[in-house]
Amino acid sequence: MVKCGGYVSVNISSIIMDFSGKVAIVTGCASGIGSATTDLLLKAGARVCGLDISQPSLQHERFTFQKCDLGSASSIKAAVKACAEANANRIDVLANVAGIMDGFASADTVTEEDWQRLISVNLTACMLLSQAVLPHMQSHGAGSIVNVASRAGLGGAAAGAAYTASKHGLIGLSKNIAWRFHETDIRCNVVCPGTVQTNIANSIRSETFSQEAFEISRPFLEIHASTSKTTDIQPVDVANAILFLASDLAKRVSGVVLPVDRAWGAV
């Protein structure tokens, strides 16, 4: 630590990724952004409780796994309860990463079943998870929730009606949580990735894919995919943003929506 004029210069590298003693819950831990976030948190010293419908291959002394169906309120509550009980009721970080994609179906073609499925997993689950961890954060006087939305949460042309609505809703939920707890050290922020190479596309049901709606969105999507530079966003790039927002470096940052998309969100 060095004093420069009236300010104190801190060795940032000594605190940037120190999650020692902290407990984090990461949804979607088995693949993609969730897996990358889990890896970085473990490297930073955190204890991580991973939630997913699929069993991850990861084995680590500070990693535990809870199978969780994000479409089920009872499954969510049971998973968070198990994570808390395994860590002396301490939960410092919640990273809501898991999500599913739609088939570009617009408001005139989306089925009620698909609408309910997308809203349930992409929005309602994040609310229920936040609701379940907040008492633990309140009891310890601090905590960080980081929700992963999408470029689709910043406009209307990047996905179908259900996915777009779910991500806009997630941003609104996050801002509401941030303001509700703005007088405390409990924070909530959002990361909005652009196109990232993950397996979320596997959640699109082929029978619900709307080619007509996709073709209308194609010019906007191709703005992002027009150069090799915009298609090289990796899961770890998004995970780095999640860790920053969860870390003490961002302890005065709450209610922020952070795109990770090589300026696609500026269009």
Automatic annotation (TrEMBL):
Q: CDD domains from the xrefs?
A: SDR_c
Protein keywords: NADP, Oxidoreductase
UniProt cross-references to SUPFAM superfamilies, sorted A to Z: NAD(P)-binding Rossmann-fold domains
InterPro entries given in the database record? NAD(P)-bd_dom_sf, Sc_DH/Rdtase_CS, SDR_fam
Q: Name one GO molecular function term.
A: oxidoreductase activity
Q: Which residues form a coiled coil?
A: none
Q: Which family does it belong to?
A: Belongs to the short-chain dehydrogenases/reductases (SDR) family.
Q: What is this protein called?
A: Uncharacterized protein
Q: Which organism is it from?
A: Cercospora zeae-maydis SCOH1-5
